[in-house]
Amino acid sequence: MRKNIVAGNWKMNTTLPEGVKLAKEVNAALANATPKCDVIIAVPFTHLASINEVIDKSKLGLGAENCADHRSGAYTGEVSAPMVASTGATYVILGHSERRQYYGETSETLKEKVALAFESGLTPIFCIGEVLEERENGTYFDVVKAQIEDALFHLSAEDFSKIILAYEPVWAIGTGKTATDDQAQEMHSFIRNVIAEKYGKEVADNTSILYGGSCKPSNAKALFAKPDVDGGLIGGASLDAESFMGIVNAFE
Ligand code: PGA
Question: Is the pTM of this model over 0.70?
Answer without folding.
Answer: yes
